[in-house]
Design a protein that fits this description.
The chain is an alpha/beta fold and 301 residues long. It is built from nine helices and nine strands. It has helices spanning 18-26, 69-83, 100-110, 130-143, 160-170, 188-204, 238-245, 250-267, 287-292, and strands spanning 4-12, 44-50, 53-59, 87-93, 117-123, 149-151, 212-221, 227-235, 271-279. The strands form two sheets. A six-stranded mixed beta sheet has the order 2-3-1-4-5-6, sandwiched between helices. β7 and β8 form a beta hairpin. The radius of gyration is 20 Å and the shape is globular.
Length: 301
């Protein structure tokens, strides 16, 4: 049996559907999906099997115009992720077309080493008419020589199988890089923190978009097969702490319940989740927080 394996980077603007596509490809929820842009911080890799090929997805942070240190580190991580892979897939939203952000990404692609395989996936195709899609496909292929173009809906699954089969044939011949049953190479502690952060973002996206981070402080395996997970939610100001806690602690309780339910589903066993909220004014400037997120602090300079 000839096996194939390779890394695939999904790049695009924030909210283009990269996390949704990763999860659809892998068949499990590894990359957090929220309607708040820029939620993917760490380069979570999902592993998908297609025939005798193993596809390792590098879910890069969305590419956008960076303003702060965290933004700059995220954009550096996204391009770094794209530079180290076998195949790049650029996701463009059908209804938004060639935005200023897409223009910038096309310029970035032109700077990559020659001979890199780059495919185009036009996502959310159910939102536009066929003639708009055709025109967008032509325009994008005039700007860059894509190896192949796919029309997909990551959310509904249309066209995803074709894309996955094509990727499976394009990755190099190689032994598999991960055990067959492994879906993500992030430590469980980080995935657990990401799940809680997703719940916080969904609940508080208006009040506290990026001012918080979550860390798993301890993980204890219990004799009855359950796990006790202690996490800290770091916020930047006292006022933020009150928002996260909510009246009589109701908000953090609801967030904890939602995160626990999903963790139990993910791990397939009972979870005891304990959340604390702490103020750390400068967490955005602490190198340690960045390495927790899989980013390089220096990239933010």
């Amino acid at each position: 049996m000839t096996t194939r394996a390779g890394f695939v980077a999904l790049i695009g603007e924030p909210n283009a559907g990269k996390s949704t596509l990763t999860n659809r490809m892998v068949g499990a929820k590894v990359s957090i999906v929220t309607h708040k842009v820029q939620t993917t911080r760490a380069r979570i890799r999902g592993v998908a099997m297609e025939g005798d090929s193993q596809l390792v997805f590098v879910d890069t942070p969305g590419l956008f115009k960076p303003r702060r240190r965290l933004d700059r580190a995220m954009v550096a991580a996204a391009w770094g992720g794209a530079a180290d892979v076998d195949i790049i897939v650029l996701l463009v939203e059908a209804h938004r077309g060639i935005t200023e952000g897409v223009e910038r990404i096309l310029e970035g692609l032109a700077d990559l080493p020659q001979g890199r395989t780059v495919a185009l996936a036009i996502n959310k195709i159910d939102r536009v008419e066929a003639k708009v899609l055709l025109k967008l496909t032509e325009d994008l292929n005039e700007r860059y020589a894509f190896a192949k173009t796919f029309m997909i809906s990551a959310e509904k699954g249309h066209g995803v199988k074709d894309l996955r089969e094509w990727l499976a044939g394009e990755v190099p011949e190689s032994p598999w890089l991960y055990p067959e049953d492994q879906i993500a190479d992030l430590p469980m502690r980080t995935i657990a923190a990401e799940i809680t952060r997703e719940k916080l973002t969904l609940r508080l996206h208006q009040e506290l978009p990026y001012q918080l981070t979550v860390e798993t402080e301890s993980w204890e395996e219990r004799q009855d097969g359950s796990a006790r997970i202690d996490q800290v939610i770091y916020v930047m100001r006292d006022g933020h702490k009150g928002i996260v806690l909510g009246r009589k602690g109701e908000t953090v309780k609801a967030i904890g319940q939602a995160a626990r339910t999903e963790l139990e589903e993910f791990l397939g066993r009972k979870v005891h989740l304990f959340l604390q909220v702490k103020v750390r004014e400068n967490w955005l400037e602490e190198a340690e927080r960045y390495s927790e997120m899989g980013l390089d602090f220096k990239d933010g300079n």
